[in-house]
Amino acid sequence: MRNVSAQAAPDDNAASTLRAETIPAFRMAQIMLVLVGAKAQGSKLDLERLSVIEFLSANPFLVVDEDSPASNQLRLQGFGRHSITYASPSQRFVSRRERVTSDIAQLVAFGLVQLTVHEGQRVFTVTESGQQAADSLYSVYADAYRLSVATVTPIVMKLSSPKMRERLETWLRVDPVLFDLFDSPTMDEFESEASGLPPRDMLF
């Protein structure tokens, strides 16, 4: 996340086509910040809630009322509605959802995240190394994303799973028929991804 802008080509056309979410390190950094933010609020995230909070924190105006104090704070941090205009929110969510399981599996393989059981649910938490890695992320966007996570997480966590899925249809402004075409991430998918990943050196 610290060096994303440095990877853009100096050519304006090339830079305009670079989307940060296409960079694995950037996506994994966002996941780390979500998990650290959830931990600070005493929340533990399963794969489904992690994927929802991670996406909505990157696009908080799908959730936050435009005239609310939280909205004003997010604007001051640099968030704007332009970030969701180049593709429909539902299409972007589907695209991001397809990458979450592989990204979180990579983080587990790196030793930055661990899978634990809490109240009968399998949830993800940051390890000590993961906490240190997340704390080392310094950028304007990282600080803005931390604020967005702190804003979005309690909104999502107060909902039951069925209610969250119902609200997700509204937040993503999606046709219910299209919504039926994609499911939330499953632990089977995660375990399939993780089983093929040998331990590797730290990413951050």
Give a verbal description of the structure.
The chain is mainly alpha-helical and 204 residues long. It has one domain (20-195). It is built from ten helices and two strands, in the order H-H-H-H-H-E-E-H-H-H-H-H. The protein has helices at 12-17, 24-40, 47-58, 69-76, 89-109, 128-135, 140-157, 161-171, 176-179, 187-195, and strands spanning 113-118, 121-126. Strands 1-2 form a two-stranded antiparallel ribbon. A hairpin with a 2-residue loop joins strand 1 and strand 2 (121-126). The radius of gyration is 16 Å and the shape is globular. The relative contact order is 0.19.
Topology:
Elements: H1 12-17, H2 24-40, H3 47-58, H4 69-76, H5 89-109, E1 113-118, E2 121-126, H6 128-135, H7 140-157, H8 161-171, H9 176-179, H10 187-195
Antiparallel strand pairs: 1-2
Structural class: mainly alpha
Distance between the termini: 10 Å
Output the number of helix runs: 10
What is the total tally of β strands? 2
Low-confidence stretches: 2-16, 177-182
- Whole-number average pLDDT? 80
Overall form: globular
Largest sheet: 2 strands, antiparallel
CA radius of gyration is 16 Å
As a percent range, the share of helical residues equals 55-70%
Q: Could you give the order of strands across the largest sheet? A: 1-2
Supply the key terms.
10 helices; about 200 residues; mainly alpha; two-stranded antiparallel ribbon; single chain; disordered N terminus
Write a compact overview of the structure shown:
The chain has 204 residues and is mainly α. It contains 10 helices and 2 strands; from the N terminus they run αααααββααααα.
